[in-house]
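Take a look at the protein record below with the fold in mind.
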Amino acid sequence: MGGATADGRIAVLDFGKTNAKISVVEPMPKMSDVLAPDVEGVTTSRDLTQPRAGSTGRNRARPPRRPRRQHTPRAIATDRPAAYLSERQGDDRPMPIKIPANLPAHDVLRHEGVQVMSEETAQRQDIRPLQIGLLNLMPKKVQTETQFARLIGATPLQIDLTLIRMSEHQSRNTSAAHLEAFYQTFAEARSRKFDGLIVTGAPIEHLEFEEVSYWGELGEVFDWTQTNVHRTLGVCWGGMAMLHHFHGIPKHDLPAKAFGCFRHHAVDAASAYLQGFSDSFMVPVSRWTEVRVEDVDLNPDLRILIDSDEVGPCLVADPLHRALYMFNHLEYDSTTLKEEFKRDLDAGRVSEAPVNYFPNDDQALPPANLWRSHGALLYGNWINDIYQTSPYDLSRIGA
């Protein structure tokens, strides 16, 4: 899977049995990466596959950029290799995606305008990619993996995405062939180290945590992140589960489902994870339970980053465990809430349409996506924080 940004940056996702690779070409540099004028616009004194001389390994290769055309080009701090630049001068520019033709996401992304690239082209970016795992607990795994891959693939960094599932739990909504082809079990992945791990939600909010059939193994996953993962992001039920595991904080049942798009505000605007965020913004919410402000505030190790007057905490930082807990759904597609509404309506679980979602509350009109830019910001900031802080040597993670 993959995606392209409006400014021409292109995300590349290469699925395989052991991992899925996201590469990004034509990255947009940060101003902090630009150091000094250079007539040629490039310098070539360092191999990007190795840490800087005398460094601790934390300063890794910065992504390359094209020289500016309207004024004197300036050099990037990381000194791009001439070989990488020379292969980009012709017309055979890399295509954005390498995925099997039989992967369900293939047609979805093709219709979004994402093209296919070769394995050889994907391997030309001779830098250490970030290793990101996606522990997918959702029943509709194809839809979920597409949503998260699209977000983390929109950053100007090369990423290897590993799809992970629980070892013993049998999915009833995703074919065994798909799981066998594209997923690792946690038992298979636990010997590896990752720069980042995303733990998705699961539609099991009505159960107490300890009643979940795979709760024992999930607890092992959470403990494993403290030695094998640099940064972890728990989403919706996944975030609540991590908060309960590490801090004993409960989830509370709601009298009615929190469902729709709700206004949120940035509590800690200086947080690196909220760079570029508006003061207030809309976030999709779809849950039957909540984490309460007073429970979080009692713990000095936790910090609320995003909150809502209507539906409570949205994003909580846990620096002690190098984790973020996101209780809502900035990863959702434009029509996800509509699909959930139809599902719940057919099952008799809800009768009210998602709020602030359909234009003029007219369910016949296509819903407007009011959160896409902030979803890209949050996941882009998370990936950038990983890039800035994760050790170059993967073996040092958790050391």
In short: The longest helix spans residues 372-389. The two ends are 33 Å apart (CA to CA).
